[in-house]
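Hey, can you fold this one?
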Amino acid sequence: MRVVIKPTAQDAVQFCADVFSQQLLTKPTSVLGLATGGTPVNLYKELIERNKKGDLSFALAKSFNLDEYLGLAGTHPQSYRYFMQQQLFDHVDIAPENTHLPDGLADDPQAFCNQYEHSIKDAGGIDLQLLGIGSNGHIGFNEPTSSLASRTRIKTLDPKTIRDNARFFSEDEHQPHLSITMGIGTILDSKHVLLLATGEGKADAIQATVEGALSAMCPASALQMHQQATIVIDEAAAAKLSLKEYYLAVEAEREKLTTF
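Sure. Predicted structure:
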C-alpha cells in the first residue's frame, strides 16, 4: 500500500488527476472505475479542464461506477447516474454507451448484479478504480461487516451512511436505504486502486484503513491486500497516522527515483 500525503486537499486532487492522465495516456482504452459523493467532485472538475485543454481524452475509455441507490431512476437528481452526468460525463469526450452504472430500477436487481460483474469482466477488468471512503470505513456501499470477498450485490445502508448522505436530500424527499454496489472482492480485482480522502473527518477511517487490523469492521482495510493500492490524502486526513513521517520519507525517496 502506497500512502501519499499532500499538504492540501487541492494538492491531493492534482496528484490523483495526474494518475488518471498517465493511465489514459499509457492506455487510451482504459476501463475506469468511478466513484460518487463529495470527495471526487474537485477531481472531476480537474479532469474536465484537462480534457478541454486536450491534455487527456476519454474517447476510447469505458467506465463502471461503484454503486447506485436502489429505487431511483437515472434521471432522479439524487441518483448517481445523474451525478455522473452532471459532474463528469456531460463535459468530456466519453461515449455515452461506454459509461456504466448499476440500474436502480432493475426488474430483477440480483440478476442485474450478476450481469454487472460479467460486464466488467467482458470489458477486460478495471484498470484504475477510484474510491472515496466513508467515515465508518466503507468503500462503495460496502458497509462494516461486509464480506471482504463480496461481489456486486444489494446492500442495506448503515444508519450512519444514511445520516452522512442526508444532506443531499431535501426533508420531504425519499432517501433510499438500499443500494446496488460493487463488492469488496470486485474492487480488489482492479489492477490499480486509487483512494482519495481529504479533511479531518476522514482521519479515523484512514488510520484504520492503513494501520489498523484487516477487518470487515473497516471494509477499506481490505486494500492492505491489494498489490497496487494508492491512498492519497491531505494533511488533515493524515492527522492520526502513527507512521506519518515514514510515509513522507518513502515518498521523498520515490521522488528521487521517478517523476511519478
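The radius of gyration is 17 Å. Let me know if you want another pass with a different chain boundary.
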